[in-house]
Amino acid sequence: MLEVPAAQKLILDYISKQGCGGQKQSVAYREAGGYIVAEDTVAKDDLPPFDASIKDGYAVIAADGAGKRHVVGERSAGSPGKGCSPLKAGHCYRINTGAPIPQGADSVVQVEDTELLKGEKGEEVEINILKAPKIGQDIRVKGIDIRKGSTILSEGNLIGPPELGLLASVGVTNVTVYKKPVIHLLSTGNELEEPEAHVLKPGCIRDSNRSVISSILSENGFPCVDRGICRDDPDLLLASLSSNLACCDVIISTGSVSMGDKDYLKEILVADLGATIHFGRVNMKPGKPTTFATTKDHKLIFCLPGNPVSAMVTCHLFVLPALKAFVRSAHPFPSVIKARLPSTMTLDPERPEYHRVSLQQDLTGDHLIAYSTGHQLSSKLLSCKACNGFAILLKGTDKKPKLEKDSLVDVFLTKYLY
Ligand SMILES: Nc1nc2c(c(=O)[nH]1)N[C@H]1C(S)=C(S)[C@@H](COP(=O)(O)OP(=O)(O)OC[C@H]3O[C@@H](n4cnc5c(N)ncnc54)[C@H](O)[C@@H]3O)O[C@H]1N2
Ligand code: MOO
Questions:
Q1: If you classify domain 52-140 with CATH, what class do you get?
Q2: Any atom of ligand 1 within 6 Å of the Cβ of 189
Q3: In this structure, which ligand is nearest to the CA of 307?
Q4: For the ranges 39-43, 83-87, 164-168, 220-224, which has the lowest average pLDDT?
């Protein structure tokens, strides 16, 4: 039975050795959120494209020093404003934040450092500058934020909100990214019904795994195709797997991988589809029966355990890193941080455990506090509610059956902390 890090390494090694993924495509920048940049992207224009005022105030000639100025025009953002002659000594323009600096001006004085001396018909005529201005004061020079031709996004960058804003601000409306895998998701089990089932048939339960997994994937920028529920019937399973494999890069299934007499998946994968099973058991709780297989044409197949918590945990630990490696993310694994236990925690005597925790700030201490989400039964999805990480706990031994209060543990982050 493989340990979790060895299983993770095996998956990523396979993806990199067999060259799974890594194909490039051009996408409209409005659709590019969640993609990984495949080619360095350069700015088409300077930002700002002209010298601009940082303050609402007056554009002046610094050498004129403090004292009186005649107001000869105005400049507002996005419009030419009034007056267009180059600024002369003793004159100034009224200017707004973001407006172009008029020709001849070399400094901006914020309105708070001036006083109005004379106005006529609602127009300013003369002002007094209270403090001698410095050259360049409150001017955002052309290209200071981004230089035309400079690299704004590099290969490997994840496109999120600021990256989209960068593309927008320099007019790059198409970007080359790594293609996302086509992912097909299915549940297996005779007992499963759709969540909409009003009254459950005897012995049946509602399918929650597809909802959880498709949501984890989409939260991480990977849409998937929902292929519904497949019954525990070898012919149906084979037909479903074959038709899915014909048009996807990755299959994620849940259920049917343990030791039951209806757990047909592994057998079908090997005997009927000629797939290779790289591992079929992992030394972890939950998630022991997690199975990773590949076809001859290098499609990835993740058969996750049916138990809802096991499916969720293994999706985070194995599927997401694989999908991120497929799109050449520089960071396929989420961060692991140290957190403090607020109370004693009993260790599982059989397997290393990925214990669901809710990380919370401790205003007095130097670490986050990892509160257990309660009973850790593999079926109990309530133990995943408000969980933002998994505490990685070693198997308990006679010598060390539990961790003491205040112990520091490694926590695998599954969500950003707000
Ligand atoms: N003899 C053994 N039995 C089991 C072992 C073992 O080592 N030896 N391992 C156990 C562990 S650990 C797990 S985890 C489960 C996983 O089994 P399967 O992957 O074959 O999953 P199923 O048997 O189909 O389902 C398990 C459980 O989860 C419920 N389920 C399944 N699919 C869904 C779904 N889409 N939504 C909600 N709930 C689902 C299902 O009804 C079962 O209760 O095997 C143990 N057995
Ligand atoms: O491995 Mo199972 O996921 O413990 O219930």
A1: mainly beta
A2: yes
A3: 1
A4: 83-87
> Which CATH number fits the domain 336-413, given the four candidates 3.40.109.10, 3.90.1150.10, 2.60.40.10, 2.40.340.10?
2.40.340.10
Fold of the domain built from segment(s) 4-23+180-326: Molybdenum Cofactor Biosythetic Enzyme; Chain A (3.40.980)
Ligand 2 pocket, mutate which of 2, 254, 288 (most atoms under 8 A from CB): 288
Q: Where are the domains of the chain?
A: 4-23+180-326, 27-32+34-47+149-178, 52-140, 336-413
Q: Indicate which ligand has the atom closest to the C-alpha of 351.
A: 2
CATH of domain 27-32+34-47+149-178: 3.90.105.10
Predicted structure pTM score: 0.90
Q: What are 80-116's pLDDT values in tens digits?
A: 767 778 999 999 999 999 999 999 999 999 999 999 9
**Cα-to-centroid distance, 26 and ligand 2 (Å):** 41
> What are the tens digits of pLDDT across the range 116-134?
999 999 899 999 999 999 9
Is the distance from the beta carbon of residue 208 to the nearest atom of ligand 1 less than 6 Å?
Answer: yes
Tell whether ligand 1 has an atom less than 6 A from the beta carbon of residue 289: yes
Which residue pairs from 98-105 have beta carbons closer than 8 angstroms and sit at least 24 positions apart in sequence? Answer: 98/52, 98/53, 99/52, 99/53, 99/75, 100/50, 100/51, 100/52, 100/53, 100/75, 101/50, 101/51, 101/52, 101/53, 101/59, 101/75, 101/139, 102/59, 102/73, 102/75, 104/61, 105/59, 105/60, 105/61
Ligand 1 atom closest to Cα of residue 378 = 14
Residue nearest atom 4 in ligand 2 by C-alpha distance: 286
Note the pLDDT of residue 330: 87
- pLDDT of amino acid 406: 94
Looking at 208-364, list the stretches that DSSP marks H as alpha helix, in order from N- to C-terminal side: 209-219, 234-245, 265-267, 308-314, 320-326
For residue 310 and ligand 2, the question of a CB distance below 6 A is answered with yes
**Ligand 2 pocket check for 307: Cβ under 6 Å:** yes
Mean pLDDT of 218-222: 93
